[in-house]
Write a structure and sequence with these properties.
The complex is a heterodimer of chains A (155) and B (269). With 155 residues, chain A is mostly helical. Chain A is built from six helices and no strands. In chain A, helix 1 packs antiparallel against helix 2, helix 3 runs antiparallel to helix 4 and helix 5 packs antiparallel against helix 6. In chain B, helix 2 runs parallel beside helix 5 and helix 11 packs antiparallel against helix 12. Chain B is elongated and about 75 Å long. Classes of the chains: A mainly alpha (155), B mainly alpha (269). Chains A and B meet through helix 1, helix 4, helix 5 and helix 6 of A and helix 3, helix 4, helix 7, helix 11 and helix 12 of B.
């Protein structure tokens, strides 16, 4: 029950964060809500993977698996959404991926290098590389799925 | 003698005749410039230009786009032009990308003449709305607060409150410096020094549930180059190696500015 409430709360928070990241990116007003939905469902998948594989896998491997599945979901959903509203896929891709993206790690690397914690910097650098790779591979898988569904992206 | 040469250069006969092809070339370059300056990827820029050209019936059109220049060539008309893109303060403005795409789609479906396309493209800076500044600041604040809870899984009220205030102030400063002096990295640096300073002050004022590291993770979120880094990797995977490297350097510079700014005062708490 606690886990369930936790998941619901996280999903709502992800919706809020993606919705308000839309203000910074200046995405069209009519797409704000749907971008929020894309981001929230991706974060829900990520959290689900993270909770379900808690005792099975190593921590980095859980992060990679979660990011991979979440970015696949983003790739598939954002194409459907962009077809429905006749806007480029970019509008849903970029805000949707925002909570998963390794920005915090990128800054932690520099900060810890300056302070002198080489080990922490190294760990964060590993995370940065594997998360970025996982996101890109997730988008590839999504593209293959989209081709099998035979939906072509609008320009 | 010199006189006659200089006057000849500005002669009526030598000024290029503004033909349909020149107008089309200008429209292509303008569309590419707007897309590139507002954070689109290379593939999209080239695709949009190719579509405009194909709709106007240009054969064998060639495009070469980089982060700071676009070259378009119409081989059969014997026409090649280059357009440099002003040094980027890399900000994304999705609404303009959508507008260019809509115009292109209308032109490709022949619902719009070339002159209309060119007019709409050159007025795009004035006609496209942006969110007001206070809404952007509010957006940055709520991004920080929600991501702080999501990433660190802790929601002590004092941390929430401090994250909100810190990120609001930092984003305001960032916007002010960026728009006033056009220096993005310096603005990032100043904003993160401000975050660090706030943490220094509040570490003397508040006690245990307050944790500067948790607050920093939240407050720094609107500034970190996560999306830029992912876009850079995607660009390289798509085969645009030169632009991808440029984007990676860009992202690393932002990360370095933010990291240095935070680390500058972090020895004292």
């Amino acid at each position: 029950m606690v886990i369930f409430l936790n998941l619901v709360g996280q999903t709502i928070l992800a919706y809020i964060s993606v919705f308000s990241f839309g203000f910074i990116l200046n995405i069209p007003r009519k797409t704000l809500n749907r971008a929020g939905i894309v981001g929230a469902s991706a974060w829900l998948i990520y959290e689900l993977v993270f909770v379900l594989t808690q005792h099975l896998l190593d921590k980095n491997w859980r992060i990679v698996l979660g990011t991979l599945l979440a970015s696949t979901v983003i790739g598939v959903m954002s194409l459907s959404m962009s077809r429905a509203q006749k806007v480029p896929v970019l509008i849903y891709n970029i805000p949707g991926i925002f909570p998963l993206v390794p920005g915090a790690q990128a800054y932690q690397v520099v900060r810890n290098l300056v302070v002198g914690n080489r080990e922490v910097a190294g760990q964060n650098f590993e995370l940065l590389v594997i998360i970025a790779g996982a996101i890109v591979i997730g988008f590839w898988i999504a593209e293959i799925i989209n081709r099998l569904r035979s939906i072509k992206p609008l320009t | 003698m010199m006189d006659s040469i200089t006057t000849k250069l500005n002669d009526e006969a030598l000024v290029p005749h503004i033909s349909e092809a020149h107008l089309l070339m200008d429209a292509c370059l303008l569309a590419g410039e707007i897309l590139m300056a507002n954070g689109s990827e290379i593939t999209r820029v080239e695709d949009v230009i190719l579509r405009i050209g194909r709709a106007a019936g240009i054969e064998k059109l060639q495009v070469y786009a980089l982060l700071n220049a676009i070259t378009v060539s119409f081989p059969t008309q014997g026409l090649t032009q280059m357009r440099t893109i002003p040094p980027r303060i890399q900000t994304m403005d999705m609404e303009k990308i959508v507008a260019v795409n809509d115009l292109t789609r209308k032109f490709t479906a022949h619902q719009m003449s070339l002159v209309e396309l060119h007019d709409c493209l050159s007025q795009i800076d004035r006609t496209i709305p942006t969110f007001p500044v206070w809404l952007q600041i509010l957006g940055a604040t709520s991004v920080s607060v929600s991501l702080m809870v999501m990433l660190t899984k802790s929601a002590a009220p004092i941390n929430l409150f401090l994250t909100a205030i810190t990120s609001c102030l930092a984003y305001t400063i960032y916007l002010m410096i960026r728009n006033r002096f056009n220096m993005r990295y310096f603005a990032l640096f100043v904003a993160s020094v401000l975050i660090s300073l706030m943490m220094l002050v509040s570490s003397h004022l508040f006690k245990s549930p307050f944790d500067p590291d948790i607050v920093i993770v939240g407050a720094v979120m609107p500034f970190v180059p996560g999306v830029a880094l992912t876009n850079a990797v995607r660009e390289i995977m798509a085969g645009n190696f030169i632009s991808g490297q440029g984007r990676i350097i860009e992202a690393l510079l932002s990360a370095a500015s933010v990291g240095l700014g935070i680390a500058l005062l972090s020895f004292f708490y």
